[in-house]
Amino acid sequence: MSDTNEKSKVLILIPAYNEEENIGTFLESMKCSKIAEEADILVIDDASKDRTAEIAREHGVKVISQVYNMGYGAALQLGYKYATNHEYDYVLQLDADGQHDACNLDILYECLTNSQKDCDIIIGSRFLEGSESYKMGTIRLLSIKFFRCIIKWIGHADITDPTSGLQGLNRKAFSYYAQYGKFDYRYPDINMIMQMLLRGFRIGECRACMHQRVAGTSMHSGIWKPFAYMVLMSLSTIAAIIRNKK
Questions:
Q1: What's the pTM?
Q2: Which end of the chain is flanked by fewer CB atoms within 10 Å, N or C?
Q3: Edge to edge, what strands does the sheet with 90-93 contain?
């Protein structure tokens, strides 16, 4: 983490809800990241009912706790507003459950600051050469392939992993998301990628290392959740296309 007397230009944003079994180990693992040592780390505790916030504070990171459980997207947008108000240049976001390996941080930052890539958003992809990932269910894989085609057709971009929450954003991107009505905090996923592409933002990808969740329950677990997710994201994406084509 950065020296408190010196302003960091990078904020590592970690939304968390009931992750007491994972977040301590995850924050410890971040010591292997060079950029994590230089950056500020912010955990948005989404009104967890366990010791998530307490454990995060014990590891010396800044924690903002929501009074009510607002959801993953609302936690992200609060982080974007924080980054905007505190004048950060970059936000690196990843999940608190340990599925996003801390080694991804340095790769995200390198790609985000690479002038040759010249991107506003970098997505960590499980499907690029050199990536490592866990086995996903059939419906989840089919939905990802479907969303790839939609993005290619409407957004004219090749995004291999449009549902990845592992992302890096520059100030232009996260300050846009911080504005009222510019970020779908209820369902922030492929619809946000589509919106940003249609708005002229530049989106790229980098290889990523992801693991199977060790403890707790994933939002994509079970049989029906992936199917419901696919339907919901399809509707949200259609709405984003219509809204941003006007």
A1: 0.88
A2: C
A3: 62-65, 40-45, 10-16, 90-93, 167-170, 121-125, 203-207
